[in-house]
Design brief:
It is built from 21 helices and 22 strands. The chain is of the alpha/beta class and about 650 residues long. Helix 2 links the parallel strand 1 and strand 2. The protein is elongated, with a radius of gyration of 31 Å. The structure holds zinc ion (ZN).
Length: about 650
C-alpha cells in the first residue's frame, strides 16, 4: 500500500465537510507538488473549481511557473486566473517583511478571484508537514496557543491538513503528473525552510512520526482555545465596550483568550506583548477604579484600545471622531465620584469624554459655556483639553475637578465640583521622619506638607492633581538650589512618597527625584515591588530613573515636561518601546508648561550667577551639576499634551 492509498476518499470526505457540494471553489495553485496534487484531487472528486495563480516576481523564472499552472488548468478543464505583484517592492514601500507581504498580496488576490466567482471557498494545499512547521514557528515565537492553521478559517479551507507531503508526491508520481519545485524553499535563511530541512528531519530521526504528533497537538490546542473563546464570549458578551471589573474577575486564560479573539476579529495580530499590555491595563483599571488614569493605545490597523472609567473597548474610531477615549455610561459604577446615580434616569445617552466646542453646563446662576467656566475657574489653558466631562450631547453634567451641574451632585458630598476622583485622604501619606536609618533624610517621604496640600481641593483631574504635588516638590528643589524636579509616588489613590532632586546637597549623582521617591515609597509600603503604583515626575525621566521605575514593576508613569537632553521616553530615546517584560503605562505632557517654567527660572538664575562669576574671575568655575540632571532647558512638547503612549 502506498502512502497515497485512500487519499482521494479522505480528501473528498474532508472537502465535503469544509465546503459542501455546490460551493464555488477557487484553488490556489503555485505549481508546487502540494497545490498541483490538490488540483488533481479536486478534478478527481468531480468538484468544479477555478485555478488561481499569484506571481510574486521574487525570482527569475517565476513566469514559467505561471505558464506551467496555466497549462495544468487547461488539462484539467478548469478556468485559469493569473495575478501578480512586485512583492519585494511593495514590502519595501510598506515596511512589511517579505513573507508577510507575499502572503497579504496573495490572499488579497485570491479573495478578489473568489468575489469574481460569486463567493465560495478558497482551497489551499497545506499539509500535516506545513502544520508541524507552523506549530513550531508559533511555539518558537511564544504564541499562547501554537494551534497551527485552522482547517477552515473564513473563506479559506485546508482539506489536506492531515495528509503528509510525501503522500501527495506519491499520488502525483502514480498519476505521472509533474510539478515545479520552488528553489526559495531551499533557502535555509528562511525560518520555515530551516525547520523543514534541518530541524524536523533531526526530530524525526529521534522521534519517529513527530510531525504527525505536532499537528495533533496543534489540533488539541486549537480545540482548547475554541473552548476558552466560547467561555470568554459567554462571560463578556459581544458589546463594543466591556466592564473592566468583569474582565478582571475571569480566569487569566479566559481573559487573555477573550482579548486576543477581539483583536483578531478586527484584523489585529494578537501578539503576546499586546495581549499582555491590554491585560495589564484592564487589571489596573479594575484595581484602581475611577482613579486609574484613562489608558489608550493604537494597536495597529486603525484600531484603538481604550481602558477608561472602568470600561475596556476596542474599535476603529469613525472618521473625524473627536475623542477616541469617549465611553458610554450606562451604570452607576461608571459615574465619577460625587455624581448622583439618579442622573442615569433622565439621561439615556451619557458619555464620559473630552470637552467639545459648544459644551454647556447648568449652574445655580444659569447655563454657561464650559469654555467660559474653565476660564472663570482659572484652569490653565494647557489642562483644559485634558479634562474629562460627563455629558449627553452638548449638555455637560460634570467637569472633572471643576464643577457639577445643578442637581447632579450626590447627597452628602459637600463640594462635588471639586471631588476629584482618587484624591487621597490626609491619613494616607507615608510615615515621615520615622525612616529607620541608612536612607538620606531627603529620601524620606515628607507627609505633613503633603497632607495639607491634599486636603485642599484641586481644580484639576487626577493626574493633574498629583502632578501638582510633584510640582510643589520641584519648587522646594528650586528654593534649595537644586535642579527643580519633583516626584510623588501614588498607590491606590494615595501619595506614599514625595521627593525632589538632591544631587547638589548630597553630592550624589544618583539623587534624582524619581529614585528618591521610589526608594521612599518602597520603604513606606514595605516592599520593593510597587505594583499598581504610579510615579508622577515633573520632567521626563532619564535612563537611570526609568530603569529604577522598571525595577519597581510600577503600573504607571506620568511626567510633565519633555527632557530633550536626557529623556528616556522619547526626549532623546524611547526606551519604553524596547520590549521590556513590564513597562508602565506612560503619559507625558501633564502640566508640562509649569514644570518647564520652573526649570527655565533655574537655568536663568544659573546663567546670571555664572555671568556674574565671569566678571569677577577670568576663569569661571565649572558648572555645578553639569552632566547630572537636565543641564539644558527642556522644551515642553505640546504634541504630547494629555496623550498616552
Ligand atoms: Zn533621573
Amino acid at each position: 500500500m502506498t502512502p497515497a492509498a485512500g487519499l482521494l476518499e479522505r480528501f473528498t470526505a474532508r472537502l465535503d465537510s469544509l465546503a459542501p457540494s455546490g460551493t464555488p471553489l477557487v484553488a490556489a495553485v503555485s505549481g508546487g507538488a502540494d497545490s498541483v496534487a490538490a488540483a488533481l484531487l479536486l478534478r478527481a472528486a468531480e468538484r468544479p473549481f477555478v485555478v488561481a495563480h499569484f506571481d510574486h516576481r521574487l525570482r527569475a523564472g517565476s513566469g514559467e511557473d505561471a505558464a506551467f499552472v496555466e497549462t495544468l488548468s487547461e488539462s484539467l478543464g478548469a478556468p485559469f486566473r493569473l495575478g501578480g505583484a512586485d512583492v519585494a517592492r511593495v514590502a519595501e514601500a510598506k515596511g512589511w517583511n517579505l513573507e508577510d507581504a507575499a502572503r497579504r498580496l496573495r490572499y488579497a488576490f485570491l479573495h478578489r478571484v473568489l468575489r469574481e466567482s460569486g463567493g465560495g471557498v478558497i482551497v489551499v494545499a497545506h499539509t500535516a508537514d506545513d502544520q508541524a512547521e507552523t506549530f513550531l514557528l508559533q511555539l518558537l515565537r511564544g504564541a499562547a496557543f501554537p494551534a497551527g492553521m485552522a482547517a477552515r478559517r473564513g473563506a479559506v479551507a485546508r482539506p489536506l491538513l492531515t495528509e503528509r507531503r510525501e503522500a501527495l508526491r506519491d499520488y502525483l508520481r502514480e498519476a505521472s503528473q509533474p510539478w515545479r519545485d520552488d528553489p526559495t524553499n531551499l533557502d535555509l535563511s528562511r525560518n520555515r525552510a530551516w525547520l523543514r530541512h534541518e530541524v524536523i528531519p533531526a526530530l524525526e530521526a529521534r522521534f519517529v512520526g513527530v510531525s504527525g504528533r505536532l499537528a495533533h497537538t496543534a489540533g488539541e490546542l486549537a480545540a482548547a482555545r475554541e473552548a476558552l473563546e466560547a467561555e470568554a464570549s459567554r462571560r463578556f458578551g459581544g458589546g463594543e465596550s466591556l466592564d473592566a471589573a468583569a474582565l478582571a474577575a475571569a480566569p487569566a486564560a479566559v481573559l487573555r483568550v477573550g482579548l486576543a479573539a477581539r483583536l483578531r476579529a478586527l484584523g489585529v495580530p494578537a501578539s503576546a506583548r499586546l495581549v499582555s499590555a491590554l491585560e495589564d491595563a484592564v487589571l489596573r483599571s479594575a484595581r484602581m477604579g475611577t482613579s486609574a488614569p484613562p489608558w489608550r493605545r493604537d494597536v495597529g490597523r486603525g484600531v484603538t484600545a481604550t481602558v477608561a472609567y472602568g470600561r475596556f473597548s476596542l474599535g476603529r474610531a469613525p472618521e473625524g471622531a473627536p475623542d477616541p477615549t469617549a465611553v458610554r455610561v450606562t451604570s452607576a459604577e461608571q459615574l465619577p465620584v460625587g455624581v448622583s446615580p439618579s442622573v442615569l434616569e433622565g439621561h439615556p445617552d451619557l458619555v464620559l469624554r473630552r470637552r467639545l466646542a459648544g459644551d454647556r453646563i447648568r449652574l445655580p446662576f444659569g447655563s454657561k459655556l464650559v469654555s467660559d467656566l474653565l476660564i472663570d475657574r482659572k484652569v490653565p489653558r494647557s489642562d483644559r483639553d485634558g479634562l474629562t466631562v460627563l455629558a449627553e450631547g452638548n449638555e455637560v453634567l460634570w467637569v472633572e475637578g471643576v464643577a457639577a451641574a445643578v442637581g447632579v451632585a450626590s447627597p452628602g458630598v459637600a463640594s462635588p465640583g471639586v471631588a476629584s476622583p482618587g484624591v487621597a485622604s490626609p491619613g494616607g501619606a507615608s510615615p515621615s521622619g520615622e525612616s529607620p536609618s541608612g536612607a538620606s533624610p531627603s529620601a524620606a517621604a515628607r507627609s505633613s506638607g503633603l497632607a495639607r496640600r491634599q486636603g485642599e481641593a484641586s481644580p484639576l483631574g487626577t493626574d493633574e492633581h498629583f502632578m501638582g504635588l510633584a510640582l510643589a516638590e520641584a519648587r522646594l528643589a528650586l528654593s534649595s538650589g537644586e535642579v527643580p524636579v519633583g516626584a510623588v509616588v501614588v498607590v491606590d489613590g494615595k501619595v506614599v512618597a514625595a521627593a525632589h532632586n538632591q544631587s547638589e546637597s548630597e553630592s550624589d549623582p544618583t539623587a534624582h527625584a524619581e529614585v528618591l521617591a521610589l526608594r521612599a515609597a518602597a520603604k513606606a509600603v514595605g516592599d520593593w515591588r510597587l505594583e499598581g503604583a504610579t510615579l508622577y515626575v515633573t520632567l521626563e525621566p532619564c535612563p537611570m530613573c526609568l530603569g529604577a521605575t522598571l525595577q519597581t514593576h510600577a503600573a504607571g508613569l506620568v511626567y510633565g515636561a519633555t527632557n530633550v537632553r536626557e529623556g528616556a521616553l522619547g526626549g532623546v530615546v524611547d526606551l519604553a518601546a524596547a520590549g521590556w517584560k513590564r513597562v508602565p503605562v506612560v503619559r507625558g505632557g501633564v502640566r508640562a508648561a509649569e514644570a518647564a517654567a520652573l526649570l527655565k527660572r533655574a537655568f536663568a538664575a544659573k546663567r546670571a550667577a555664572s555671568a556674574a562669576g565671569a566678571t569677577a574671575a577670568p576663569v569661571p568655575p565649572p558648572e555645578p551639576g553639569a552632566g547630572t540632571h537636565p543641564s539644558e532647558e527642556p522644551q515642553p512638547d505640546d504634541s504630547q499634551q494629555g496623550g498616552t503612549k
